[in-house]
Design a protein that fits this description.
The chain has 239 residues and is an all-alpha fold. The chain contains 5 helices and no strands. It is elongated and about 140 Å long. The N and C termini lie far apart (199 Å).
């Protein structure tokens, strides 16, 4: 590094240190002002402004620290810069945090009854909307349950109807097959010259079953033997 470059490098460090010192001074004044203004709620707006300024000043100081650390060659100088920043942050951060909590408490205490009533009304309206949506969801769920039950019942009926149709079709096919077998047997017997083993009228047809008719036994007359019919009465003779 040449003398000119070395001088320029040192000048930059000196310039940044001056800016850092000025930023620390402004930050200290803002923090002290914040402490003094927190005694009265009338200073709420002013405290808010000082807190914003202090937060911005702290960010500026952090930026200057980063630039300065990048120019240091010696680790000891970097450690010294880190300690400088940490000490300023340790003094200002608690003041800013406490001021923000104070601002929050003042704003909560300043809520008027009208504002509170409006907020309560808004909460009631929100709860009412939630209840309404829940009731609609419950009604929709019940309707879907009814539709599901009706669908299952309809499917069961359709399945039963299909089973009956298939049963009727099977009976019709069995009937046609029985008739065909009977005709085949009759025609085959006529060709061979023998009577059919089972007349067509006696072959049962599916679906045409009839109950057997009840018959009464024929009365058989009692026959007398020829011996009894020829028996003649005996005549007794008196002496």
């Amino acid at each position: 590094m040449s003398d000119t470059e070395g001088k320029s490098h040192r000048d930059k460090i000196v310039e940044i240190k001056k800016s850092r010192t000025a930023a620390k001074g402004r930050l200290t004044r803002w923090c002290n002002a914040i402490k003094g203004l927190q005694g009265s709620g009338e200073n709420l707006d002013e405290v808010k402004g000082k807190v914003r300024s202090a937060a911005a000043g702290l960010a500026e100081l952090t930026d200057l620290h980063d630039k300065l650390s990048s120019l240091f060659v010696d680790d000891y100088e970097r450690e010294e810069a880190d300690f400088y920043l940490s000490s300023v942050q340790g003094n200002c951060n608690p003041v800013i945090k406490e001021a923000r909590e104070w601002i929050k408490s003042i704003e909560q205490d300043s809520v008027t009854p009208d504002d509170s009533a409006s907020q309560c009304g808004s909460n009631r309206s929100s709860r009412s909307s939630v209840v309404s949506l829940r009731l609609k969801a419950t009604a929709r769920k019940a309707a879907l349950a009814i539709e599901e039950a009706a669908l299952k019942e309809r499917q069961l009926i359709e399945s039963e109807e299909m089973r009956l149709r298939q049963r009727k079709e099977q009976i019709a096919i069995d009937k046609e097959m029985a008739i065909a077998r009977a005709e085949e047997e009759v025609f085959g017997s006529e060709i061979e010259g023998e009577p059919p083993e089972h007349p067509v009228s006696q072959i049962p047809v599916p679906g045409d079953e009839k109950q057997p008719e009840k018959t009464t036994p024929a009365l058989t007359p009692k026959l007398t033997s020829s011996r009894q019919s020829r028996r003649q009465p005996r005549i007794r003779l008196q002496c």
